[in-house]
Design a protein that fits this description.
Layout lengths: L3 E4 L15 E7 L3 H13 L3 E7 L8 H13 L7 E6 L1 H13 L5 E6 L2 H7 L7 E3 L2 E5 L7 E5 L8 H17 L2 H9 L1 H4 L5 H20 L14 H10 L6 H18 L5 H14 L10 H8 L11 E7 L2 E6 L3 H9 L4
Parallel strand pairs: 1-8, 2-3, 2-4, 4-5, 5-8
Antiparallel strand pairs: 6-7, 9-10
């Protein structure tokens, strides 16, 4: 049974997911303060003891100091194992709140309310939590499933278009690794694909959530198939690190997927026309497909610390054809450099 509830006007459904809970901590970024306080008041009116923790927006939230701030609130309020954490915000907020919930008393109830497209189709689904360190992204984290994920499409109507576009990169990823019809839908009517009120948009969200839930259910701790969800992420995470997390995740992994396609082409695994399809669909949405040549050494060093590596060897998810992912293990630095030259500015 799906843990994700997709629809519109879902916030009234939240108290039912808190059955048996006495205390709730709502973790939210500063821009959602008014909405989080309204949720807190609604829960208080239902008999819950509800608190809020305002955290930085975006990747700045994913620091151990911020997690410790949340733990401090919970400790002072004497949170017990039958209490809960609600993550209300984008992917960084749900990553952080899931981590806080999973580590408090070795795990209390986690409810996620993603308010960005990226959060809805990726970060809030599948039970990965994490925070960043100076050495890289998501190097500290847990596998911990939320009790429920409320995907309320109405929360996206005020989301800036560039945030929707960035989130659509993860939707496109699902098209490349599993469901090529996703690519066709976006290519056929890009405007509808980016309209949160359209049936096309809702269909893309449902398809994406279905894929991620199916994959994570079969391989929760990423011992095999779940690795495919990292398509484009090895270089993408290195770009985010190089940009000090000022770039949107979707922009970074768009470049990462083009890079992975070039790697597959050089390895004789993917056709040139499929590589060009990567570029064309990202350009269609206005997402980047190239990066700075002078950053290569820094990117390579960061990738070599990537958590998906094995025995010190890099592993990249690549495609053998669209919809059929595989693994490229231990590529040489020369091969990686050649593929990178194909995507430099």
């Amino acid at each position: 049974m799906s843990r994700a509830l997709i629809g519109r006007g879902l916030l009234d459904e939240i108290p039912a997911a808190l059955d048996g809970v006495k205390k709730v901590l709502i973790i939210h970024p500063e821009p959602l303060t008014n909405s989080a306080e309204a949720l807190r008041d609604a829960l208080i009116n239902k008999g819950f003891e509800a608190l809020v923790a305002t955290v930085p927006a975006a990747e700045e939230a994913k620091r151990v100091e911020v997690a410790a701030f949340c733990w401090g609130i919970m400790g002072q309020a004497d949170f017990q194992r039958n209490d809960a954490v609600i993550g209300f915000g984008g992917g960084s907020t749900t990553d952080l709140s899931g981590f806080v919930a999973s580590t408090w008393l070795r795990g209390i109830r986690s409810i996620l309310i993603p308010t960005t497209l990226l959060g809805m189709v990726d970060a809030a689904i599948g039970g990965k939590t994490g925070i960043n360190t100076a050495e890289g992204k998501n190097l500290v984290g847990t596998f911990y499933l939320p009790t429920k994920v409320f995907i309320d499409l109405d929360t996206l109507h005020t989301l800036p278009k560039n945030e929707l576009v960035a989130g659509m990169a993860e939707v496109i990823k699902y098209g490349f690794i599993s469901d090529p019809e996703i690519l066709e839908i976006i290519e056929k009517d890009t405007q509808a694909a980016l309209d949160p009120s359209s049936a096309t948009f809702a269909d893309l969200i449902q398809r994406s959530v279905n894929i991620k839930e199916q994959v994570t259910e079969s391989d929760f701790r990423e011992a095999g198939e779940r690795e495919f969800l990292n398509y484009g992420h090895t270089l993408g995470h290195a770009i985010e690190h190089a940009e000090r997390y000022k770039w949107r995740h979707g922009a970074a992994i768009s470049i990462g997927m083009v890079f992975a396609a070039e790697l597959a082409l050089l390895s004789g695994r993917l056709r040139e026309s499929d590589v060009e399809r990567h570029r064309s669909i990202f350009k269609l949405l206005g997402l980047p497909v190239s990066y700075k040549a002078e950053k290569w050494e820094q990117l390579l060093a960061t990738m070599k610390r990537d958590k998906k590596g094995r025995a010190g060897m890099l592993r990249f998810i690549v495609l053998d054809q669209i919809g059929k992912p595989g693994v490229l293990s231990a590529p040489t630095d020369e091969l990686l450099f050649t593929a990178f030259q194909a995507i430099v500015d």
